[in-house]
Write a structure and sequence with these properties.
The chain is an alpha/beta fold. It is built from nine helices and nine strands. It has helices spanning 21-30, 48-54, 63-77, 96-104, 134-152, 163-166, 181-194, 217-225, 247-256; strands at 4-8, 35-42, 82-90, 110-114, 157-158, 197-201, 231-234, 261-266, 269-274. The protein starts with a strand and ends with a strand.
Amino acid sequence: MVLFDNHNHSQFSFDGQRTSVEASARAALSAGLGGICFSDHCDHYVPPMKASFEDLKPEYFDVAEQQEEIGRVQDLLGEGVKILKGIEIGMYEECHEQIRDILSSNSFDQVLASVHYIQQTDPYYGGYYEGKDWKQAYGGYLETIYKEMTWLGDFDIMGHYDYIVRYAPYPVTSIPYRDFSDIFDEMFRYLIYEGKALEINTKSYEGHRGRIVELDHNVLLRYREMGGEIISLGSDSHEPSRVGAGFPHFAGLIKSLGFRWTAHYEQRRLVQLPL
């Protein structure tokens, strides 16, 4: 079984100080992965609450510099591991023009689309959850992902749909399919029709602030029932020790649920490898 880690950050991400392209690529090689993609952060909008804590400007990176470094490390490590050039584009309604510009001006192997900031807040700091019960908070996040990804269109992988659960204050530690079936079905129809991947982000399930997020298997079962086959595994690593984290477990899980492949993209073209 050959697995690719499709969601990793390097020194080119604003929060990638604990690793580098070379260090994480070497970790992928040591772990026996077939490939690693560096999908460094690109968020043109940073909420004022976060900027006030961290004095941050928009979180984007020098694409040419990143890709040059990826090429250098690929030459250094040779054919033992494939190193892919990616971006994690942060979708936000006020930044549509900037998002279009960076994607049209550069070439990537994979474009991962995700939502980090919502309603002018960063869920990491808790502001988004104020005044909402868990259904309002989780449902609002799913609705935002769907709205933004259907606007964008130009992406390959829908990233961490359950990111919103990591930092939530509620006792409900998953996004159950039964409670959000309508929006999940809309998301899945779009992904399936457009040939885009659903990500399993293993970082979500490792525990945050004493809280462990649970993956509702019914979400994956419904995706498969509707005809979805394109599953991407991503560790969301920010340090070498987390590259490929949890992959044996989650590869086994999706195989047990009837999936036959894992997916990645090379030069924006789908590649599926058998489980």
